[in-house]
Specification:
single chain, mainly alpha, about 280 residues
Length: about 280
């Protein structure tokens, strides 16, 4: 059979999704644990009762962030150790993480112009949720080192980007949905997830701006509906334009460059054959 016939046979038959990282029981449990801790870390202003003393412990926040970072590292380590992440997947992870880290400073944060988000969406779509979570976390860590953005906010950025990229891997129709329908699905997801990422990251810093005595700052003595209204006002006043710019850039790049990049990523994963065991030929006598 010629190469063209082989390619035709591969494309006409049902497509089987290739996963560079599979989530096994241990890595899945670690991911659920760190996500639960992350939800509490992000959302505690709406989970704690007004008479609690959590609002008085804003100075302890870096310790919570450090603990969250340790859990993130544990998730990545468990995922790699259980899935048997091979050298080809490590190479793919390194290339995509380095590319994403290099794309992040291109817009210098201007008006939310952050082209790395569309790369995360497409990579998570092709390589699956397990690889997506690892890639999102590692990319944000690498970009923080590259841009000097290391601080108590970094663990939350890593977790939020891991969720963002993993979500793309959980979208429906990974084996059969192609063409314009897939591009539209990814663009819609990128648009919504860009706003979700900005909103989640607002939660990481909003509770600790009480010293400004602003009407949009977190009030530890107010009820949940009042604080929710304050938070929405905070998002509208500080980050709506930024999030809108990120969402629009993600949609434009997904619709224009997405089809070609999806084909390139799928071709690379087929040739890499991540799920095939690595073997070595015996030396010639």
């Amino acid at each position: 059979m010629t190469d063209s016939r082989r390619e035709g046979a591969r494309t006409t038959g049902p497509r089987r999704r290739v996963r560079a990282v599979r989530l096994g029981p241990r890595s899945l449990a670690a991911l659920v644990l760190v996500s639960a801790v992350g939800v509490v870390g992000f959302g505690w202003p709406f989970l704690a009762p007004p008479d609690s003393q959590l609002g008085a412990h804003a100075q302890d926040a870096p310790w919570l962030f450090a603990g969250l970072l340790v859990l993130l590292v544990a998730v990545v380590a468990a995922t790699i150790s259980e899935s048997g992440l091979g050298p080809k997947a490590v190479a793919m992870l390194g290339v995509l993480a380095a590319t994403g880290a290099a794309l992040r400073p291109i817009g210098a944060g201007t008006a939310g112009i952050e082209p790395m988000f569309f790369l995360m969406v497409l990579s998570g779509r092709v390589l699956g949720p397990g690889f997506g979570f690892v890639l999102g976390s590692v990319t944000m860590f690498a970009s923080a080192l590259l841009t000097g953005g290391v601080g108590p906010w970094m663990p939350f950025q890593m977790l939020a980007m891991g969720w963002f990229t993993m979500g793309a891997g959980l979208l429906p129709g990974p084996e059969r949905l192609r063409g314009r329908a897939e591009s539209a699905l990814l663009a819609l997801y990128g648009f919504l997830a860009a706003f979700a990422y900005g909103t989640v990251m607002n939660l990481a810093g909003w509770p600790f701006m009480g010293a400004l005595a602003s009407s949009i700052a977190f009030d530890p003595h107010a009820a949940v509906p009042a604080n929710l209204a304050r938070f929405l006002a905070y998002c509208l006043a500080t980050s709506l334009g930024w999030d809108l710019g990120r969402a629009v850039v993600t949609v434009v790049l997904t619709l224009t460059l997405g089809p070609a990049l999806l084909r390139a990523l799928r071709r690379a994963t087929r040739r890499a054959a991540f799920e095939a065991p690595v073997t070595f030929d015996a030396p010639a006598p």
